[in-house]
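Record copied across here:
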Amino acid sequence: AVISDPTEGALLVMARDIGVEPAALRASYPRLAERPFDSDRKRMATVHERDGQVVAAVKGALDGLLPRCAFVMDDDGPRPITDDDRAHALEAAARLSDEALRVLAFATRALPAVPGDEEDIERELVLVGLVGMMDPPRPDVRAAVDTCRTAGVRTVMITGDHAATARAIGEELDIYRPGDLVVTGEELEEMDDAALDDAVRRASVFARVSPYHKLRIVRALKHDGEVTAMTGDGVNDAPALKAADIGVAMGITGTDVAKDAADMVLLDDRFTTIVYAVREGRRVHRNIQKVVQFLVADNLAEIVVLLAAVALNWNAPLTAVMILWVNLATATLPALALGVEPSSRHIMEHPPLRAGTLLEGRQARRVVFQGLFVAAFALLAFVIGREAGGDAVGRTMAFGVLAFSQVLRAVNQRSDTDPVWDREGGRNPQLAWAVAASTALMLVVLLVPPVREAFGGAAMDAWQWATVLGLAFLSLVQTEAAKAIGRWRARRGQATAGLRG
């Protein structure tokens, strides 16, 4: 195993494969100086002593190195480079790039002495050759990209590789599709902000970009209304990571500067981990929605019951202790259990939510309708009970409808789309225990005479019990009917889209 930069490691492995031992080579040709790689030059140079002579070895991108080559290495040694030589090198690089290979060019030059810090040694070089290398994508990356697309998350590749190489890799990962744009750093330099805003809508691959280009791309995406997540590992990536809505740094290869600038650090440097994070984030957000929907619908039902009683000049359909008990015993435990609900199998099939959105319009309407529906049946139970046995029986029946409706709604609140009897989703034993505990607590209040009297209730006969449970069960029927209608509309919409396509 080679522990180093992946590119350097690949070159060392290639050297060993052709019979060159790196350790012996370093001993024979000691390094005297170095010009590190930077993204502007797109190359690096080292200076060595070779047989008493000082030589420079340069490697980098062909498009940046070729203009600095005055010679080419032939079988008989260096000779002046010709236009045909340059065309042949570019053709070979294009062929390798189309095969999704990164291409590095290598050149050398004899020096009269060890150069100074500012001396330009990357000129009048002798072109030695090209090397194509591949960092094959992990097998699970394409599936992760497809999952992102299904979830409404657009994946854009931003790389320093040649445009042909980037496009070939993008096609392999299904990031680039016919009709998409491939924008290079040179093209980006010529774009003003308005042109870049238009380009980021259609481009899926950005190639030969600099750190400043990455920052401009992030800003353009945000200006276009996108919520952006930017990945990076180098010091130069820090501005783009900071500017993105979510900066994601690599935990293994990332620099400390990149990690400090990021909002999230990947411990395994895998793209699929980002997809898992999106799934988990959606699960948490969805569970918050479930709890809010559950509690708001319940409180709305209680408010409507009390306001209706005031408007109709009725005696109070619920005592204060009954309201407190509904909010504590039959709301708190199921709400806590809904907060740890496992993710739905469809969670990555829904479009992203707008930032800061807790309840969308459709969900808000559903909450209001559920609250009004439960309130109507609680009031009906109060009227039925009052006519049969007085206000105490009416209060007890209204209390029972509110409480048992809430317990049943906790069960079908697990999903806004899947039916309550669906068994393909994840299990939530905490919810089962919460429903059982809430039901048991309600039965204690309704069946134990001293407790029932303390709550201001009265005993119910079998018919009244059946009425309470039947009306409470209708809340489950109403929600499941709404889900079924939603599923039918979704299928109809997909069928219509298919016909139009």
